[in-house]
Design a protein that fits this description.
- It is a single chain.
- The chain is of the alpha+beta class and about 550 residues long.
- The chain has six helices and 29 strands.
- Strands 5, 6, 7, 8 and 9 form a five-stranded antiparallel sheet that branches. It has a five-stranded antiparallel sheet with strand order 14-15-16-17-18, with no helix packed on it. Strands 4-29-28-27 form a four-stranded antiparallel sheet, with no helix packed on it.
- About 10% of the residues have low confidence.
Amino acid sequence: MADDTLKQVEKQDLLKSQKPLQCRFHDTEEYQIFCKDCKDFMCFKCLGQLHQKHDLSPLRDSEVDIRTEMEALMFRGKYVEQLTALSDKLSENKNKLAQDEENLNCEIRTSVEKMKQKIDLLEENILSELRNTFKSYQTTLQEQKTNVNNLQTEITNLDIDKLPEYNLNHIINIMSEMKVCSSTCDRIINHPKPNFKPTMEFSIGNVILSDGNNKGDVSAWPSCSDMSIQTDFSEDSDIEWFDAEDMEKDDFIESSSDEVTDEIDEYPINFLLKQDIKRVRKIVPISEKDAWIISNRKLLKIVDHSLQDDVYAEIVDDIVVLKDGCVLVLRSDESFVMKLLPNRRLVRFADVGIMCTYIRCNPYCICIKDDIVVTYNWSITGGKHYGYTCCNHIIWMNTDGIVTERSLFSNSVWKRPCSIQNLESGVCVLYRVDNESNLHCIELLEAKSDKCNKLYCFKGIYGFNPEKNFECKGMCVDKAGNTLVSDYRHHSVYVLDKELKYKKTLFDARNGLDKPAAIGVFNNHLWVADGNQIFIFNYECEDSS
């Protein structure tokens, strides 16, 4: 009895309901018009947006049409079916969301666990490197201390009264040994000790939305106020009005798991250098794990994917490595190319500087191919307002430093050589195009020509002049004769054919590159220096056609 009374009261409240006729599209407006064609209500703001040329009437004059439409809807049960279908869909999506959340939780936990394992391994490697470094220091100190003690004993045994009787060579050797011992001790004592700078820049991934524009933004989910539409419901559209909404949520769940993967390949390999290294100017791999690099005009060495502390040479602009392991060192402010021997001694290799218009033309870059060493010398006179005159001198020599060919030419455009590669068809040169920006161009010059005529030039891949957009910090050549270049501004490394035409992009930001600089090829691996880190990618070169 009480239930019947309650239902009767609710029914009477429904009949007496005076809820404002607020427009569902415009919060500050009320319904004023009824569209007989769409069987829908609107305010005056809606009138300027939809229902143009429809049969309209004021709301107060449409009572018969409205009640007739409502009666038809209730008789057919159309709204009930639509709302029931919506409820079922929402329930299914709710269950799917719960399951997908659990799956993503598992994937995130797995990714974090792998990150922890990597951190533990990195900790072990750093501590091992630290132990080896200090052990090496201790060994060096002990050896030098033994030398000092031996020298002290030897001097103590000398009789000053019998000094004229001692062999002169013996006295000279002792005095020389004292000077060596003193300088060595000073160098050891003042040698910079290892330090540690923690870096916490790592990421395990992101939860992303399907369109990629609302990363981690909860507000991107549709609210209840977003779900109303203004349209004409036909007999066949009772399900279509929510399909697009469900599809967007399904896409979100599927795409959000793309950031996590369980597959870890051996390559690419990535390792960090020192924090004070901002850019690597040159990299020359000499094995699968070892390479020479130039950074801050210092010659350094990577051994077993780890940068050594030793500086092998100061003020270095370019290098090549000979088959016997010696390194040819080029300095742009000196005319001599030096040779670094395996015992770390620097000796002269060849004097390649010449006088050009009363200015010495010094070497700026060097390369080697088939035991032929090539240097590109350059000097410039004049200025921006009165014009430039550039002297260009390319020298070919053998590995004994004997010059076999020379080419001397000039031009009136400021172009400083940055890197050179010796190809079968000519000499490929990377130039910096002016002294005010960091833009570059690439030209292929006719091999061993007196004038070194330009055969081809790189014309870019992005649809605009490379001399206005191309910033390149590294260039090398693979065994098929393709030219590989790094594009600093577009975070890419790509391949050019023998005519310097773009072939394809090898690696870019999707592979982790940010500011690729020096690059080098060894066997089937491409080394890419990027800031203070090195990437090693698998690279199978293609025949250049």
